[in-house]
Amino acid sequence: MEREILNLINNSNRILIITHVNPDGDTLGSACAMKSFIGDKADILLQIKDNFQFPSTYSFLPHLNKAKNLTNIKDEYDLIIVVDTASVDRLVESAREIFDKAQNTILIDHHKTNKGYAKINHIRGGISSTGEVLFDLFEKLNVEITKEMALCLYCAILTDTGCFKYESTTSHTFNIASKLSKTGINTSEIADLCYTNKPKNLILFQSYLVENAKFCCSDKIAYTIITKEIIEKFGAKDEYTEGICETLRTIKGVEIAFVIKETDLGSKISIRTKEADATKISQKFNGGGHKRAAGCTIKATVNVALEKLLEEAKTLI
Ligand SMILES: [Mn+2]
């Protein structure tokens, strides 16, 4: 499998690396590490339409300033590599078209719920991050990890493990972090760039949503609703929603937290849990994810989605 991936990369002329919608540190870090490894013949596609939606938190990653978006992407690639993307419906519009038409496709991921939708599916469910899967892949192929690749992979692993807090963090994860750190990257600076460099409006937006959170079932369930009106009021980018659900989950006594976001495609749901299996809820609505962090889209208004979610969540507490 690993050799097959390397051969395909070597034998392809134009390669497109696709990140998932609403890109996070793992998908971006993994994509940039892959681009850094492949070089000029690879492009990165961010599934966004314009610069406004550009995930500014991660703008310190290399190559992102030259990334393609959904409006300027052309169909000229013979190999597509999708990173950190749990299901094919997280590829939208032109990205999906290019993926469907491509001669060869590779998927690299760590979501347990990922059933595989590419020609080559390198999925290691339960591993901390796609960054970790990618590091192991590079190591198996005797690829030298440059300082630039290390920066990208460290960002991927750091953010997807919640700073090495989540239970998917193993001694192997720490071992990788140690190897990455030995390349000379500044780990504390990377953490600062990821976590202490937030736009003012992001904090105000998130504070508003936390302040307006609702609680039920003796405060075991917490949720907040993001309407289009609120998004407009704060000029909130997609990435601004990252972390709100996690904040609700950290409240003492809360077992299940979710965030419902109004979008053109329906209600986009994030779920975080302490003990309950979050995928038991997300999979009811054709979503995916991990035990403690999952997501789905419900094709209904936020209020209808809320009712359906509460019904499922109540069976788990
Ligand atoms: Mn991930």
Terminal CA distance reads 41 Å
- Indicate the radius of gyration in whole angstroms: 19 Å
Which segments are poorly predicted (pLDDT under 50) over 5 or more consecutive residues? none
What class do helices, strands and sheet pairing give?
alpha/beta
Sheet with most strands: 6 strands, mixed
Could you explain how this protein is built, in words?
This protein is of the alpha/beta class and 317 residues long. It has 2 domains: 2-195, inorganic pyrophosphatase (n-terminal core) (Alpha-Beta Complex); 200-314, Diaminopimelate Epimerase, Chain A, domain 1, CATH 3.10.310.30. Helix content is 38%, strand content 18%. Helix 2 links the parallel strand 1 (15-18) and strand 2 (42-45). The chain binds manganese (II) ion (MN). Manganese (II) ion binds at residues 26, 84, 110, 129-130, 160. Manganese (II) ion (MN) binds next to loops.
Keywords:
317 residues; alpha/beta; inorganic pyrophosphatase (n-terminal core); Diaminopimelate Epimerase, Chain A, domain 1; 2 domains; five-stranded parallel sheet; 12 helices; globular; binds manganese (II) ion
Write a brief caption for the model.
This protein is α/β, with parallel strands linked by helices and 317 residues long.
